[in-house]
Specification:
Length: 424
């Protein structure tokens, strides 16, 4: 059983990607580099192979965190500072991810493989990268297992959700003058490089003290936050601007004659932000265990698998949103993958709800088991989604996912002849 209704498969042939990038850095600095870099790839390399290569680099970076900082995943209060070169490798890896993520579309146009499969695959990898980089960046900033890392996860996922929600209602992927995929990534690369030179302790310094501004009359009235917390505040301001711009773009598209043809008219656009609010509230409620000081999960080795499970559930959620966009189907308001998080959150909050102890999470060990089971279920659910969607699209359109091939009218696989070596 696939995810795409049979009567909506034809919309796959009509789908065309539309994007608008206002970033000056992208236009005048990175895009000329990307245009040159894609020419280094042979036209027999599939665009999705390039995308997957970028995600594999990020997964390797995440593996180095777990290898060189094993206490992050095994001890309640322990940390081991990775070697300085690890932080540099994270910066290089993220820059390579950004580069490969940018050229896969160019490669698709070079090889004549542009279409909805590339859109789905690209955004799916971006969704997974969002959570992995959140954990890496939080570790580089010295935030570790804390509510600041949770806040960072919420902010980064909210940005991604807003962009997907905006694209669903407008039909256009908007990137503003300061966007996460361009300037945001470069900023995180800079954080990795600084941490590589100075260590994560540098981010514990106070911002006004570091800038020698703490004695100025007006500045002294503003809290002298540590640099890492100041970065979180800066991210919150950026999120607020993105919310405003996304809302204005959706409002303009909704008021246009006829609106976007794929917009789900059953719901007001703003109400379709509630699924993200609800899913995020579930995760925070689970973390906010009322029976104990702070939370077993935040203060324990269960934190990393918990965030990874959260990220996989989010990837499933936005994956269905993107699928609805490329097929013209209704907006996915409810996602069944949240059920296990509902169980975890309700069980953890039974002392608050019914004044009885949790039934499942009765000890740190049992809590860890529930978290790891949630991670496995979330991984299998997302893997099933990816497999079925790729199967549906490739079978209907007669294309391959990781090779530059298409089926002819007789059902025989043949290599695609590049339409042009000129880049669009």
């Amino acid at each position: 059983m696939g995810y795409i209704p049979q009567d909506m498969l034809e919309n796959l042939r009509n789908y065309k990607y539309r994007g608008a990038d206002k970033s000056l850095v992208s236009r005048f600095v990175l895009n000329p580099f990307w245009t040159w870099f894609v020419t280094l790839w042979p036209t027999w390399v599939a665009p999705n192979t390039i995308t997957l290569t970028g995600l594999s680099i990020v997964i390797f970076n995440f593996a180095t965190l777990l290898y060189y900082d094993p206490l992050y995943l095994t001890e309640r209060d322990g940390y081991t500072d990775p070697p300085r070169w690890v932080y540099f490798s994270w910066g290089i890896g993220l820059f390579l991810y950004q580069t490969l993520d940018a050229i896969d579309g160019k490669q698709a146009r070079r090889t004549g493989m542009a279409g909805p499969l590339g859109e789905m695959f690209d955004h799916g990898c971006d969704a997974l990268n969002t959570t992995l980089e959140c954990l890496l960046a939080s570790r580089a900033l010295g935030l570790g297992r804390s509510w600041w890392t949770v806040a960072s996860q919420i902010a980064t996922l909210a940005n991604f959700y807003l962009t997907t929600w905006e694209e669903y209602h407008t039909g256009v992927l908007f990137l503003g003058y300061f966007s996460g995929p361009v300037e945001g990534i470069l900023l995180i690369v800079a954080i990795y490089i600084v941490t590589g030179f100075c260590g994560p302790q540098v981010w514990e310094k106070r911002i006004w003290t570091t800038l020698h501004l703490e004695n100025l009359p007006y500045i002294s009235r503003i809290p002298n936050l540590p640099l890492n917390e100041a970065f979180m505040v800066f991210g919150a301001l950026g999120l607020g601007l993105n919310i405003f711009h996304s809302y204005m773009n959706v409002r303009e598209a909704s008021r246009a004659p006829g609106g976007h043809p794929h917009r789900d008219s059953r719901y007001s656009p703003l109400t379709l932000l509630l699924p993200f609010v609800a899913s995020t509230a579930l995760q925070v409620a689970w973390l906010s265990h009322p029976e104990f000081n702070d939370s077993w999960i935040i203060n324990s080795a269960s934190f990393v698998p918990f965030v990874c499970a959260w990220g996989l559930q989010f990837a499933h959620q936005v994956g269905r949103m993107i699928l609805a966009h490329v097929t013209g189907t209704g907006f996915p308001v409810w996602d069944w993958i949240w059920i296990w998080s509902v169980i975890g959150a309700v069980d953890a909050n039974l002392p608050r709800l019914l004044n009885i102890p949790p039934l499942l999470q009765t000890s740190p060990r049992n809590t860890a088991i529930v978290v790891w089971v949630t991670l496995v279920i979330s991984f299998l659910a997302y893997a099933r989604f990816v497999t079925l969607v790729i199967s549906d699209i490739t079978n209907y359109l007669g294309i391959a996912c990781f090779t530059v091939r298409k089926k002819d009218e007789h059902g025989v696989w043949k290599s695609v002849r590049p339409e042009s070596h000129k880049l669009a």
